[in-house]
């Protein structure tokens, strides 16, 4: 709660107001996001699942090992990853899956789901912030494949994506692999529609952040006085989400009062899109010597495999 309050106040006192996207996912936010995942316009999950079904065997063929640790950062419930794990169980003599997530509860769901489909797979969940808990796995001796799926890399602003990929490289040993899900640049209309759906579910998702602040931080945001706005810039590859104040107003968070001008914006999320050439450059900049891209049939999404 203390970090939530601190981050919200700091963000809303900036000249360009902002709120961290990690706070979208309270219970209601997670429920709304599941609705987003099922939207016709939100192409990302379908594309990633297509690649996993069609290319998992080809991806795993690139790994010249008999034993393997598959370490997944931000693993969630494992419902997509299990597609690859089934293929991996056929290939490797000794396979261990180590899902990492900040939520112990979701890791329990993950382990139950994966072991139900692959009963003899060794699953060792690691709860906590993987930026800190990844060090706990340093002493393991098996070759490593680190997974970072779901286009999560797109939520890192500016140079933070490079810093994160370098962080993964620093954890790996020479010859280990990193598989990263990436949303690719494409027709700008397709991308913009994914963040401005016809049913207004993305709007609900964005506005729910204000509901959460009201509920948990004793604030008095008038939800009707804000609108969701999503935009995509094809020059930079950045899809940005904002909340727009529809009137001049003051909002209280506890005893603190925050002023909004009419049409002032709160930046809530970035979702960066990349080209394959961008990814090749990033791989070389972060110490990866080899990479191969596995895309869906439309070229909307990539699972990009890099080797240290």
TL;DR of this structure?
With 308 residues, the chain is an alpha/beta fold. It contains 10 helices and 13 strands.
What does the radius of gyration come to? 20 Å
Q: Strand percentage, roughly? A: 25-35%
Q: In which range does the helix fraction lie?
A: 25-40%
Q: Which shape, going by the Cα principal axes?
A: globular
Average of the residue pLDDT scores: 95
Task: Name the helix and strand elements from N-terminus to C-terminus, one letter apiece.
Answer: HHHEHEHEEHEHEHHEEEEEHEE
Indicate the CATH architecture of the largest domain: 3-Layer(aba) Sandwich
CATH class of the largest domain: Alpha Beta
Helical element count?
Answer: 10
> What is the CATH topology classification name of the largest domain?
Rossmann fold
Largest sheet: 8 strands, mixed
Q: Which secondary-structure class do the elements indicate?
A: alpha/beta
Can you tell me about this structure?
GO terms for molecular function: methyltransferase activity. It is a single chain. The chain is α/β, with parallel strands linked by helices and 308 residues long. It folds into two domains: 2-42 and 189-272, no CATH class; 44-186 and 275-307, Vaccinia Virus protein VP39 (Rossmann fold). The chain is built from ten helices and 13 strands. It has helices at residues 2-12, 27-37, 44-61, 81-91, 104-117, 130-133, 160-171, 188-194, 201-217, 276-285, and strands at 67-73, 94-101, 122-123, 126-127, 144-148, 177-183, 226-233, 238-245, 249-253, 256-260, 265-272, 290-295, 301-307. Strands 1, 2, 3, 4, 5, 6, 12 and 13 form an eight-stranded mixed β-sheet that branches. Strand 9 (249-253) and strand 10 (256-260) form a beta hairpin. Helix 2 packs antiparallel against helix 9 (201-217) and helix 3 (44-61) runs parallel beside helix 4 (81-91).
């Amino acid at each position: 709660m203390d970090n939530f309050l601190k981050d919200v106040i700091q963000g809303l006192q900036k000249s360009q107001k902002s709120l961290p996207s990690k706070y979208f996912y309270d219970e209601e936010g997670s429920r709304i996001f599941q609705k987003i995942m099922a939207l016709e316009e939100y192409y990302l999950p379908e594309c990633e699942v297509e690649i996993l079904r069609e290319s998992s065997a080809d991806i795993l063929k690139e790994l010249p090992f008999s034993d393997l640790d598959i370490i997944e950062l931000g693993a969630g419930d494992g419902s997509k990853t299990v597609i690859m794990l089934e293929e991996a169980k056929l290939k490797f003599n000794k396979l261990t899956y180590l899902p990492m997530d900040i939520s112990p509860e979701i890791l329990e769901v993950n382990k139950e789901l994966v072991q139900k489909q692959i009963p003899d797979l060794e699953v060792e969940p690691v709860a906590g912030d993987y930026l800190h808990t990844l060090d706990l796995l340093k002493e393991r001796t098996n070759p490593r494949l680190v997974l970072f799926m779901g286009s999560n890399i797109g939520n890192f602003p500016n140079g933070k994506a490079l810093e994160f990929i370098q962080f993964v490289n620093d954890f790996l040993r020479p010859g280990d692999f990193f598989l990263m899900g990436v949303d690719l640049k494409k027709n700008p209309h397709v991308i913009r529609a994914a963040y401005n759906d016809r049913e207004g579910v993305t709007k609900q998702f964005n506005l729910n952040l204000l509901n959460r602040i009201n509920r948990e931080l004793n604030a008095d945001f008038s939800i009707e006085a804000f609108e969701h706005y999503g935009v995509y810039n094809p020059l930079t590859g950045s899809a940005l989400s904002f909340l727009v104040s529809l009137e001049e107003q003051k909002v209280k968070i506890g005893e603190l009062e925050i002023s909004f001008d009419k049409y002032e914006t709160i930046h809530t999320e970035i979702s960066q899109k990349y080209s394959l050439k961008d990814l090749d450059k990033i791989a070389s900049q972060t110490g990866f010597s080899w990479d191969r891209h596995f895309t869906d049939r439309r070229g909307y999404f990539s699972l990009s495999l890099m080797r240290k």
